[in-house]
Amino acid sequence: MRWEKLFEPHILERGYAYYREGSVTDISINEDQIDATVEGSEDYSVTIDLKNGQVEDMECTCPYAEDGKNCKHMAAVLYAYENEGKDKQSQKLTYEQLKDAVDNAESVLLRRFLTDILWRNEKYRLQFLSMLHPEQEKDMLAAAKDRLDEIVDDAEGYDGYIDYYAASGFIDDISEWMVEEIDPLLERRQDRAAFELSIHVIESLNSVEMDDSDGGITEIASRCYEIWETILDRSDEKLEEEMFEFFLNNIDGQIVDYLEDYYEDILMARFDKPEYLKKKLALYQMYLEAVNPNAADWTSKHHAEHCIQQIQSLMIQMEKPQEELDAFNKKYWSYPFIRKAYMEECKAKQQWTVLINVLLESIELDEKNAPGLAQGYHVMLKDAYLQADQMENYQKELTLLATQIMPGNIDIFREYKQLFSENQWPEKREEIFSIVKEKYILNRLYSEEKLLDRLLENVISSPGLYALRDYEAELLPAYPQQILDKYVQEINAEAKNAATRNTYQNWVNILRHMRSLPGGKEAVRQIVNEWRDVYRRRKAMMEELNKL
Predict the structure, then answer these.
(1) By CB distance 3.0 to 4.6 Å, which of 97, 221, 467, 474 could disulfide with 462?
(2) What is the secondary structure of 148-201 as a DSSP string?
(3) Residue 15's CB: how many other CB atoms inside 10 A?
(4) Which residues neighbour 301 within 8 Å (Cβ) at sequence distance 6 or greater?
(5) By residue range, what is the domain housing residue 162?
(6) Which of 44, 65, 92 is the last residue of a domain?
(7) For residue 471, is it within any domain?
């Protein structure tokens, strides 16, 4: 059966790789049909119809095949079909057995076999020649880039857009390409070539328009970042400097920001020699001069803030004189992150009075426009008062947090409790209970204080089973009947509406759990009998009940 002509050459190659990796499973063959599963990042089902021993039609559940294209999964199944029933002893060889066979083979036979393989496979041919003649590495890289470009071209289609359904297959293909092209280079320590190909991956991702709802681009870009780290861990000074200069000169907006972030992250994280730090500082200073920190538009303002933050970080890393740091901080004092870094410095030096003054100023500056930040400042202020032994201020700040700013925070609640005697505390906690309106927060506080009667009341009055599951273990010993009644009420309420099989399975799991409760077996028996009568026309529901 000659079926190879049904596929593009690169699809055949990927299909063969899947077959050789053992990705074809659950294969079923009869006279007119082949069914199989092909495992990858996801499992895909393949069906191939045969007529008179020839392929008549093929189907696959992968996104690539939805447009009527013949995919690598179909090719993998056909390769498996061709070998079905044949002697598979060669496939069962271990690496050591194969190595022994090669070591014991005649030299002339090996040379003839290797020549034939390399002549028929361009990728292996170029890899082999590059090992013998490093100057031919350029041709190998060009061919590898061409193959990646083909993957991009095939995925984009006529409209130049990769939709959600095609995105998964596209990302899988790039991942395979990286395994086939970059990983062998890393294994042979051809790190400069591996770096060049990883950059081509980022540039290729930058060139495509696609629905990346599943985060495939992030997955590939993160893999590139890992490759850069691997190379830098073992690179010589020359390659390290080349990589530094590349990243330094390519955080200029030429690629989309979420990909450029990977360049900037590796630049800031890994290159810490004094000469590198100096160049990075000069770059961000130049960028800052080109934008207006007080600009009205969000983009300019955000870019300026980012540059200021990076400059501050680099100045600290370079151990700039304190007066220079102070002057920089003063110039950009209105930015919260500038003050936050200064606060951390004060904490490290245990300069509590200075820290308190900065926190009070920051609360005043940020409380209106950034209440979340101000809330954190109040917590830091409380701790600073305690460290400075200003107990009166500490108690006032803690009271403010517990009763106004963060009344449901369990850690603040516990700390606040330490201010009062056993007789004083009940009255104080009631003040907090009266302030908190959200049931889920009150539940935490009731649980903390072992007020099980109030906790039960809240749990029973809460819709659904979420609160019950959170506090069942705590409430069950004292209130077994109420817990069971809540389950019965909620499960019967849900059952009034028809649902999917998955939902029926969930209900059956709940019934199983209910049987473990005191009195649960009888309650479940009554529920099941009632459901079999009332909902007998729900076939899927009845099938799931039978499994109970």
Answers:
(1) 467
(2) HHHHHHHHHTTTTEE-HHHHHHHHHHHHHHHHHHHHHHHHTT-HHHHHHHHHHH
(3) 26
(4) 293, 294, 295
(5) 106-271
(6) 92
(7) no
Q: What whole-number distance in Å separates Cα of residue 413 and Cα of residue 433?
A: 11
**Residues 6 or more apart whose Cβ sits within 8 Å of residue 35:** 26, 27, 28, 45, 46, 47, 48
Q: DSSP state, 405?
A: I
Neighbouring-strand partners of residue 44: 38
* pLDDT tops 70 at residue 123: no
C-alpha–C-alpha distance, residues 228 and 224, integer Å: 6
Band (87; pLDDT cuts 50, 70, 90): very low
Q: What is the pLDDT of residues 301-334, one digit of tens each?
A: 888 999 999 999 999 999 999 999 999 999 999 9
Same domain membership, residue 196 and residue 82: no
Count of other CB atoms within 10 angstroms of residue 288: 19
| Same domain (yes/no): 57, 161 | no
**The pair of three-digit structure tokens given for residue 138, joined into one six-digit string:** 């350029």
Structure tokens at 430: 């009631």
* Contacts (Cβ under 8 Å, ≥6 apart) of 327: none
Domain end, chosen from 45, 64, 92, is at: 92
Locate 37 and state its tokens: 């599963």
Residue type present at position 112 = R
Could you give phi then psi for residue 36, rounded to 5 degrees? -160, 165
* Bridge partner list, 28: 35
